[in-house]
Amino acid sequence: MTEKITNPLDPDNPLKRPSNGEQTEVAHPPQPILPEDSAITKAEKIERNGIGAEDNATSLRETTSKRAKAEDSDSEMTDVPAAKRVKLQPQQNGQGAKVDTEIGAEDNFPSLRETTFKRSKAEDSDSEMMDVPAAKRVKLQPQQNGETAKVDTREKVKGIALVKPEYLINAFSRPEPETSTQIDDDAAEGQGKTDDRDNVGRNGKNQKKKRKEKGQNKSRQFGSWFDAIRLCVSRSNSPEFSPKACSFGDTCKCCHDLRKYLREGKRGDLSTFEGKCPVWEAQGTCFAGWRCRFVSSHSKEIEREDGRKELVLIEREDALKQGFDDEDRPGIFNVVSTNDKINLARRRTPTEKSDTYTGWLDVQQKEMEKVYHEKKDASEETREENRANFTDPPFLPSEKRRIYFGAETPVLAPLTTQGNLPFRRMCVDFGAQLTYSEMAMSIPLIQGQKSEWALMKAHQSEISPPRYTPTSTVQNYDNTKDLKFGAQISASKPWQALKAAEVMGQLLPHLRLIDLNCGCPIELVYQSGAGSALLDAPSKLEKMIRGMNAVSGEVPITAKIRMGTKDGKPTAQKTLERLAFGGYESRERLGAPGCAAVTLHGRSRQQRYTKSADWEYIAECAALVKSYNKQKDDLTDTIREADERTQANTQGNRMFFIGNGDCYSHVQYYDDIKLSAVDSVMVARGALIKPWIFEEIEKGQYLDKSASERLGYVEKFVRYGLEVWGSDEVGVGLTRRFLLEWLSFAHRYVPVGILAHLPPSLQDRPPAYRGRSDLETLLASDNYLDWIKISEMYLGPSHKDFKFQPKHKSNSYEIEAEG
Prior knowledge:
Elements: E1 4-5, E2 15-16, H1 42-49, H2 53-70, E3 87-88, E4 99-100, H3 112-122, H4 186-190, H5 258-265, H6 278-283, E5 299-303, E6 309-313, E7 332-333, H7 338-345, H8 352-372, H9 380-388, E8 411-412, H10 421-430, E9 435-436, E10 440-441, H11 442-446, H12 450-453, E11 458-459, E12 485-490, H13 494-507, E13 514-518, H14 523-527, H15 538-551, E14 557-564, H16 572-581, H17 587-590, E15 595-604, H18 615-635, E16 656-660, H19 666-676, E17 680-683, H20 685-689, H21 693-699, H22 707-725, H23 729-746, H24 774-779, H25 784-795
Parallel strand pairs: 8-17, 9-12, 10-12, 12-13, 13-14, 14-15, 15-16, 16-17
Antiparallel strand pairs: 1-2, 3-4, 5-6, 7-11
Helix pairs in contact: 8-13, 8-15, 10-22, 13-15, 16-18, 19-21, 22-23, 23-25
């Protein structure tokens, strides 16, 4: 007969001694080391628990020693170490008592150890029961199905993602947050072809770099990927026996022998996607022609009547209209023709509006200097004469297309490098309602550079109207005329911004808005006077917004700013006031500048990403923007009503306000809108790490994407990339390069199914962990060689000259040039 033993912690659940040979579970499995646990040496304590933990342990021992002396307990109590940290709570519903492991729990139960000891003495228990040390760290919860539930007793540490213990590779180690050595490599991505003018400082003088760029913070190189023999464009899309005439004639250096090119000039066809060309599958034809890495899937050899065999390309009967250059490609909009770019380069494109307005700005600047820099002893007549010299602008802005921002329109931020067309298209598939181009520089746009105008391309999905379900009607807003896609530009002088805005209004028919970047932290951009440098030049910023609004046609003008340029000295509130009303010297004469919306990134230029975004400051600015709309009646001349064409959005001239910074879940998104009172939230890094954040926002729940689903998104990106950049060697290389850029952020995603704490934070770094499958572990790898391995699943082996340099390790949690 099995002897039953009374359980001192739960009398209703008696204990029984195991019979001979009976297998039992380990009573006390190894527990995670807590800061209060003993260690041999001080160095070991620091290694286990971090700096400062030994002080807490010393304090704990002193407190425990004093309390033990004060209590009248038997000497045997010294053999019961568990009671030092045990907190017994009253039983509820007949369940076992809970044990609290918090340090100092004995303060609420000073006689805890005495009570436990007396109860053990009174009950007829075996002496082996006195050796139970489990109560040191175990927190008992209500039993379910006869088993004791396992509860994670670890506390959340700031900067560390709390991963469930069963997925940790080493449960006894915990990485420290790497926030003390943030290295700036924003310039690495922002730096392109430069000349001596790029080193001109804000004072107009050449300035030497303060420090030498080192290691991977230098401008990265990605190698090259070309065919060994280049096929002439006159042959690339033509049948073998009937090619087009080569415009270079005998001087052409490219190959004209198709069979030689296929045999020696290009690498073998890819076997991915079952050997079928994704471009041909989607459009019925392939503009890469014979250069396609899947050419065998859409070509064949036919025999002519004379017995000759000819290589020809195949097209589907339902093939979309397809050109063989960028100007006639289905599904791609805002494509500027080669002739237009040549006209820009040769200064043949007329920009009368911006030239006239810039001339007026120069005259007004001189007149304003007379008024505000006049001598104190100047007569009143002189002052009035100077004021009388002010003239009105040469023309008023055109009536703008009304736009809308709301909680149902989450915004994808403009992202340098990562914000390319395939990635934006994928985010729209997930539910992004508003998108921006990568930041384009004004001077290259005005000069007609192909690379800069390529950033203005938009996919067909970005041309459709955004979701519109407002709680209140927006006056004069027509959702059917609205778009998702907007463009962002950077400029250092008013004439640059005006010319770029006018040209974009002429050449880009599918444009929701033009956003002026006032937040780019890149050193090169800042030193030139553009980006975040405009925050320190509010008068120049106002001239840019006012002038762009005058010359952009029906396209609205918006701005994206930061809190300021320096830590602890925010200037965004003053900037917002100027954008809403204009400066004191111009608001009475000219009215508001006409800024339709402002996006505030809750960080300063100096801060970068070393700290979390300041949403409290964003909330303060949101309250100010609302108050500005109410103050407008007091600041408007009651004799002359403001012209409706100068109003940015509604007749009330409401300026939309969008918050930006650290949004990584639907919980944070809706909390930011509700608590900060912003119109919408712009998502940047959160979208790079998990693009389905827009799907979570739409559905209002966390989505635990499986590894196979996430790999499917990689395949989708590759398909979209090949459609944009081509399926030839160059297109495959570009797709691979930008896929690796995205994976450098996507690998940071920690599945919600293995997190012990929600909502997740962008600032948290996970300890080393294993995924729920080998594929999930591979997708979480921070080794760029594993990223290349993932790319080879769909793009085949990389070119022998292909190179990829990941960003600096300590900076891998930053983002470049989020403007």
